[in-house]
Amino acid sequence: MKKILFKSFLIYGLGTGLSQSLQILLVPLYAKYFSTEDYGAMETIFSGFLLLIILGMLQIESAVGRYYFEFDKYGGRKANISTGFWTIAFTTIIFAVLGVIASSSLSAWFFGTEKYELAITLAFGMLPFACVFNYFAVLIRFANKPIIYVIATLTQIVLTIALCLFLVIQKGFGIEAVFIGQLSGYLLGMILYFFFFKKDITFNFSKSVLKRYFSFSLPIVPAVLGSWGNNHANRFALLSLLSLSEVGLYMMAYKIASVFKLLEIAFRMAWQPFFIEQYKKENHVAEFKKIAVFVTVIMSILVLLSFLLAKPITILLTSPKYYSAYDMVGWLSLAFALIIVSSVLNIGPILSKKTIYNTYSYFISIIVNFSFLFYLIPRMGVKGAAISLAMGNLALLLVSWYFSENLYPVFRKRK
Question: For residue range 141-155, what is the model confidence (pLDDT) as tens digits?
């Protein structure tokens, strides 16, 4: 069982993690060519982009994954895949058009200048491509086609990085180069996936399939919004509490610590399909328990190392204007590690199909996070944002574990 999980982690998990966290590879570039103000604005725009992905996809990809092995019972493969595809495409195109129209006003509203209008326009423009790419990436995992997955993912990553490097270093572009690179990477990756799924994409849109998807996915959406709020909404709050330059320092520390974010995305991509496939097998509870203990020990060791090595790593990866960000790296690494441990402990809501409990957990964590945020920042400055995120994620771990054990016991004795 562990070998299967590890293989999925390496192929699908790390591929998704690299795809979504490839900007870690560009940290030295950002530190050298972008001011702290521009970097803070760029990462704030990306935070808004992630919110749009959540609203555009509505967790339909989770519903497709949950029912993937039951397609024959519910209208067939084409009806299920096509319904999900057209729903995501239609929703995200509407968001993209409205966002492009409002990009100038959004730049002035959040940043007090229209300087970032083009970056915001590009972010909205790549939304449909990113969401469809992510939808196909989930489907390819359940279809168990690792070669196609690796080709599409590596193509997206290489094009994004290469184009970004070319535009910034050779052409002197600003932060808009990052969004051009991302848009191009998602577009090409989506096209490659489409060639594989083109036989499954028809105009066969099923209201009954969509209704079943929404019955599973919509209760998850508030929880995912809670996750976004816990990890990203504080950036918008920081704009009112700190300077854009200080937000940039926080985001640089966040990006360095995002090595843990990569691991989180990788593990989550591998873990959910794994435990859904395995939980009906004998002795699965004992295996789940062993995996949880193993993951917790590994994360503890890595977090300790992140505190010890934060300063030299920050100096190695960045430039002098970002060196003061080092004292936030350890706390942010802890925050990401807590999410990884939480994901392996929190299997009860999915297996019991009571995903509303994830919503409760995330909103409790947001309350804890923002309570610490508004208390610590006046006393500690920007470092308080990193500590508050860790405290919020600790609350998430404890609350979600409590709910999960009541819904599907793993560590406590079953009745």
Answer: 777 777 888 788 888
**100 pLDDT band (50/70/90 cuts)?**
very high
pLDDT in tens, 373-401: 999 999 999 999 999 999 999 999 999 99
> Which 3 state secondary structure label does DSSP give 241?
helix
What are the strands, taking DSSP E only, across 76-119? Answer: none
Do residues 206 and 261 both lie within one domain? no
Share of the chain residues as helix, strand and coil, in percent rounded to the nearest 5 = 85, 0, 15
Distance between CA atoms of residues 306 and 311, nearest Å: 9
Q: Are 256 and 330 in contact (CB under 8 A)?
A: no
Asked, for residue 31, whether it belongs to a domain, the answer is no
Long-range pairs for 314-320 at CB < 8 Å and ≥24 separation? Answer: 314/252, 314/253, 314/256, 317/27, 317/28, 317/31, 317/256, 318/27, 318/28, 318/31, 318/252, 318/256, 319/31, 319/32
Work out the pLDDT band at 273, boundaries 50, 70, 90: low
Contact 252, 244 (CB under 8 A): no
Residues 233, 363 share a domain: yes
**Tokens for 43?**
């990462």
Return mean pLDDT, the chain.
85
Last residue of one domain, picked from the residues 153, 185, 217: 217
> From residue 361, how far is each of 234, 369, 392 by CA, in Å?
18, 12, 10
Q: Does residue 122 share a domain with residue 254?
A: no
Give residue 362's identity as a one-letter amino acid code: Y
